[in-house]
Structure formats: C-alpha cells, structure tokens
C-alpha cells in the first residue's frame, strides 16, 4: 500500500488532521508506521543498509524476484573438449547450485549450439557447441540467454536458427537474435511471483563484415536472420514498448573494448539515456574482463561481468568475473550485490579468501571511479544507491 495514493486528492489541512487522528489511535499507529517505512524503503530502490544497522527487522514485501546475471558462456573449443572428457555438466559443476537457487538466471551465450551451417568466411574465430551441450544450461538453471553477440552467426543462419530452436525446446528463452529484425528485437517477458521482468538484447558488432567477397554482417534484416544491432533509436523504441507491459526492464548490451577495465565515455552516455528512457538494469558483455558498476537514478549499469564459462586461461583478468545478484520488486531494484568468481580449467567457482578479496577490491575501485559505492561484506559486495561523487560526463 502506498500512502501517497490516497492522500493526493485530499487538501493538506484535511490530510494532516487524518494523519494525526490515526496516529492517536494506538491500535493503528504501529501498522501505519510499518506502511510508511515500507513506502519510503521501496521508493529508495537501490539504498542498502550498512552492515549491522538493524534494517533487517523491517518486514519485506512478498512480491520479489531474485535475478542472477552472469557473463560470457562459451561451450565450444577447449570447453567443448572438456565436456566430452569429463561430462556435459563439468563447466558448471562448482557453481550450478548457486544458479539453480535463483528465480531467474540470465547469461550471454557466446557459442551457437548446433550441428548445422558453415563457417563465416575469414572471420578467424568460430565457435559452435554440440547440440547436447544445452543440457548443461538446463541443469544449471538458465532461464534467458542473450544471443546478441559477435559469435551468433559463426556458422551462418542455419546454426543460429537451430540454436534458438534447441534453447526453446529445452525451456530456455533467447533474446537478441531471430529469423528477421522484428524477431531479433522481440523482448522476452518472465513473470515470477507477480513481478513482470522483460529482457532485451543488442550488439555493437552487428554491422561488422569479415570478407567483402562474402559481405555478410550479423545484423538481422526484414528478410534475413541475425542479431539486434546496438542502435540507440531502435533500443529506445523497444524500451518504450516493453515498459508498457512489464515492471522491470533489463537491457543486455554486447559492447565495449576487449580486455579493457573501463567503459568508454560513449558507453556511459548511452547507458544513462537508456535508464532515462525506462530501463532498470543494463548488463554488459564482450570485454572478457570485469568492469565497474554504476548507479544512475533508479537504475544499475553493470558495464561488463567478465567471463563466466570460457577457456581464456592465459591471463588473470580473463579468469575473473562477477555474478550480479538482484532482488526485484514491481517498483524496481530492491537489493543488488556482486559475488566474485574465478575460472579454473574453464570451470567457474565462487572465489574466496585472498582470491575473492582481490576481485572484489578491484570492482570496488573501478566502481568508485564511476561514482558508485560498493560496501564490502563477507565474500561479496553490496551496491549502495548513494553515489560517492557526482559522476556527470
């Protein structure tokens, strides 16, 4: 119940009289206090309590959804060979229970799942996972996966379309790719505990062409399968349409510079415009390294969660990543925290001890540079809604 809803039509004097009268009645005063506390907690959607502040005594609203978001998931190349040798579930063996515990789990699928198609000429790096590897995603609890990335068409349209089909047949929704532009732009909506969460996905690599003798970009068109382009006009239109149907808008963006710790100024400007347009959460992929997080108005921007399941074992940075853990309500983001992960032999696990502390401290530092404060707790960091500085461009 929101107090503002029934007070708005009443004159200020009458409203004050009613409030005083209610407070004078002992049987109602405590109930009203709880409602006021609940209302203002919910209006401060990203505010979090300092450890030990006692806010846990305030009752929570029942309409909540736990969303876990992870980074790049690639089930081909060395990861695929390990799955053949050690079993399909090997990449997720140390982390599946955590993913399964959430109401919704989201990630970026960086490899088509298919036995069809042919390599896109001269692309250089091609990923394609065997169809049976989808069982590992099902086992791990994935609900929605973005396909809007620079590997979606590694084996051309047949592999992309089969990937979408295989995921759907196994109960996993895909977003950001389709048999035409309309389908690639189409949102996925999940309703859990009465909270409607909508997902959109786009890539800034949709227009790249690797061979001018075979001028095939990955952008979907009215007649051709592909991925949704990171086009601001398109994204703003899609957010406006989705906002009419859901409580929470999640936008996945495959963007940025590979192996960089920092988003560009252009990324930050775009992310803020998307929040202004009604998005609540921006989830970034592609750099293969973790980047900082930024709180802006009612929204949260995770510029890059880094790798999740990948075989880039050649650097510390490409073996570190984040799990973003959020509690969502019909009013927005209620809680947000991150958990550090470390990838060993293509297998992510929650990082603890000095290893986990190093990942968290790096994320705290990078987020501080974006004007956002993270509060370190035991093996995780809580994202505060109070900016440390004015971070205007």
TrEMBL record:
Capsule synthesis protein CapA domain location: 66-312
SUPFAM superfamilies reported in the protein's UniProt record: Metallo-dependent phosphatases
Gene3D superfamilies cross-referenced by the UniProt entry: 3.60.21.10
SMART domains per the UniProt record, alphabetical: PGA_cap (SM00854)
InterPro entries documented for this protein: Capsule_synth_CapA (IPR019079), CW_Biosynth-Accessory (IPR052169), Metallo-depent_PP-like (IPR029052)
Pfam families referenced in this protein's UniProt entry, alphabetically: PGA_cap (PF09587)
Family indicated by similarity: Belongs to the CapA family.
Official protein name in the record: Capsule synthesis protein, CapA
């Amino acid at each position: 119940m929101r107090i503002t809803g029934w007070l708005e039509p009443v004159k200020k004097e009458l409203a004050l009289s009613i409030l005083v009268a209610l407070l004078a009645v002992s049987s109602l005063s405590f109930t009203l206090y709880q409602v006021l506390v609940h209302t203002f907690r919910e209006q401060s959607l990203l505010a979090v309590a300092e450890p030990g502040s006692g806010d846990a005594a305030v009752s929570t609203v029942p309409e909540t959804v736990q969303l876990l978001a992870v980074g790049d998931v690639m089930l081909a190349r060395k990861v695929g060979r390990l799955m053949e040798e050690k079993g399909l579930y090997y990449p997720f063996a140390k982390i599946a229970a955590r993913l399964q515990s959430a109401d919704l789990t989201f990630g970026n699928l960086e490899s088509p799942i298919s036995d069809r198609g042919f390599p896109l000429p001269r692309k250089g790096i091609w990923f394609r996972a065997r169809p049976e590897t989808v069982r590992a995603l099902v086992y791990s609890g994935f609900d929605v996966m973005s396909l809007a990335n620079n590997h979606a068409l590694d084996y051309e349209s047949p592999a992309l379309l089969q990937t979408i089909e295989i995921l759907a047949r196994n109960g996993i929704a895909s977003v950001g790719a389709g048999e035409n532009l309309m389908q690639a732009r189409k949102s996925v909506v999940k309703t859990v505990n009465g909270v409607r969460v909508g997902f959109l996905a786009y890539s800034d690599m949709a227009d790249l062409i690797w061979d001018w003798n075979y001028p095939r970009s990955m952008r979907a068109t009215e007649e051709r399968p592909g991925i949704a382009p990171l086009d601001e006009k398109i994204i703003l239109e899609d957010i406006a349409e989705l906002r009419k149907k859901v409580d929470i808008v999640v936008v996945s963006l495959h963007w940025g510079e590979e192996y960089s710790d920092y988003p560009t100024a252009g990324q930050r400007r775009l992310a803020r415009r998307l929040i202004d347009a009604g998005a609540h959460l921006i989830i970034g992929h592609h750099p293969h390294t973790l980047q900082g997080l930024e709180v802006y108005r009612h929204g949260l921007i995770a510029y890059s969660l880094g790798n999740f399941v990948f075989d880039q074992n050649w650097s510390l940075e490409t073996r570190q990543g984040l799990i973003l853990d959020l509690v969502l309500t019909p009013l927005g983001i209620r809680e947000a925290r991150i958990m550090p992960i470390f990838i060993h032999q293509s297998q992510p696990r929650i990082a603890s001890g000095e290893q986990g502390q190093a990942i968290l401290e790096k994320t705290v530092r990078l987020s501080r540079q974006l004007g956002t404060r993270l509060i370190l707790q035991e093996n995780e960091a809580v994202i505060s809604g109070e900016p440390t500085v004015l971070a205007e461009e």
